[in-house]
Amino acid sequence: MKRIYFDHSATTPVNREVAESMLEYMTEKYGNPSSVHSFGRETRKAVEEAREKVAALINAAPNEIIFTSGGTEGDNLAIKGVAYGNRKKGNHIITTAIEHHAVLHTCEYLEKQGFTVTYLPVDEHAMISMDDLRNAITDKTILISIMFANNEVGTIQPVKEIGQLAKEKGIYFHTDAVQAVGNCPIDVKELNIDLLTMSGHKFHASKGVGALYVRRGVKVEEIQHGGGHERNMRAGTENVPGIVGLGKAAEIARRDMDEKVVFIKGLRDKIIAGITEKIPHIRLNGHPEMRMPGNVNFSFLYIEGESLLLNLDLKGIAASSGSACTSGSLDPSHVLLSMGLSHEVAHGSLRVSLGRGNTEEEVDFFLAVLPEIVERLRSMSPLYGSAADFKPSNPCSSCHHH
Ligand SMILES: *Cc1c(COP(=O)(O)O)cnc(C)c1O
User: Fold this and answer.
1) What pLDDT does residue 254 have?
2) 136 and 165 in contact (C-beta within 8 Å)?
3) Which active-site residues does the annotation give?
4) Per the annotation, where are the binding residues for pyridoxal 5'-phosphate?
5) Is the dihedral angle over the CA atoms 212, 217, 221, 226 positive or is it negative?
6) pLDDT tens by residue, 146-160
7) How far is the CA of 41 from the centre of ligand 1 (A)?
8) Which of 76, 128, 133, 305 fits a 20 to 30 Å CA distance from 96?
9) Coiled-coil region(s) at which residues (predicted)?
């Protein structure tokens, strides 16, 4: 069976050119970049060239890039680093209710350390309100951490306005741009971003490598102690093959950006139009316009996202849902609940995230099999057909309640 990969927000395949660039930094050029001999010098050079490419992708300076092990570490370093480095100025952080857990759990940890955190609500499209943000700022606020684009529903936040406001108020602005980097053009100078997290495996580099952009002059305290690597901000021998691959992926992303965005948007809009036309009782989750080029997220009323996933998987199609059964919990996504969806509607959600390698034929196949699967699952649902009894505000029986 031909397999179709529609889960690029979870991870992406490593580009072949990227993988090839990495190989010689494992087998032949294996020096430690901190060594003074020729083996060390050649890997140091490769690391610094990668830094230039990563910086160029977001219009930063090379010395504003710190290599990390990925998105989770970048978020931790940005948020804890600013919190600990600036606690004399204040102890208040503003973030949103729909962040990735790498941000949310870091903020919750900091609350236990004596910081106070405001979690901004979002509207039905997962968008924050600039008024809410403005009103949340106090003279103790040291950091605003708001994601660039949401990983589940694809909503893109008003990053430029947030950056402008943060700059006016003298507050640092961090954005988790893990979903956005490589998928939409980003200029950290134009957007007034002070710190930005990216992760290699979300844009065709390998897992376990990423970068944090820290604008020159931003005070960040290191959270991992050891050698003086990465300008004392991130101790540990550099992941040279990973970093070389990240540089290559950044170079390719920058080169192909415009073409890629147009292509992926085309597939996305075809799926959105196809589902809207063919399937009743659905809800498009996320913002209709301000959304990631490759993100599709729908709720299908009266069915469970997990059953939908399993049935698609039987057809060779890999997608994702808004409840985290696989991680041992049936709780629906905090993002969908924050948008005001009931438990039932949140449970019936499906995310399709597209990438460069997807084709029109794959989209056509998906649109051909999906309506039949949805209809079959609905025909087995006790709620379907007796829609009068269906009260979307009732929590469903399969959820764990807190
Ligand atoms: C994937 C992801 C992360 C985590 O990145 P890792 O490199 O997997 O640790 C953080 N934030 C967002 C928005 C993500 O999509």
Assistant:
1) 98
2) no
3) 325
4) 71-72, 151, 179, 199-201, 237
5) positive
6) 999 999 999 999 999
7) 32
8) 305
9) none
